[in-house]
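Appendix C reproduces, verbatim, an entry submitted by the partner laboratory led by Prof. M.T., so that reviewers can inspect both the input and the predicted structure.
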Amino acid sequence: MSQTIAERLDAAGVTLPDAAAPVANYVAYVLYGSLLQTSGQLPLDGGKVAVTGKLGGAVSVEEGQKAARFCAINILAQAKAALGGDLGRIKRLLKLTIFVSSAPGFTEQHKVANGASDFLVEILGDAGRHARSAVGSPSLPLDAAVEIEALFEVA
């Protein structure tokens, strides 16, 4: 892949938002040596939670995948802020942890998680191939359907 991350975002029709500010007593990211850890990102679009509710309830797998994609966009916005605007410093996405607000009996968290995984591989190329965990949760902040945190290796 010879395109830059910015060119791939543009080709995907995605403009990164400003990084969301923390809403409680934590920081949005921690940069430690060559590791960048983001705090959990919600499916914000235009500053509002775009997809709320529980998967396996009122929220479909497709809507959950859309929520996961929004989370991934917000993860890249945090990475951009952490790296002084230079997403080219990302060497590798190491791991995603995906929390899916799930109704009892819902077992397709892995399919919801693909909304973020597929997008990040599209944008980061091979550097976006990552380990992950997809976990069902009884509820998430602000009734978000999905929340995702990421760990990167950076230059």
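The domain at 5-17+27-154 is CATH 3.30.1330.40 (60s Ribosomal Protein L30; Chain: A;). Additional entries are available on request from the coordinating office.
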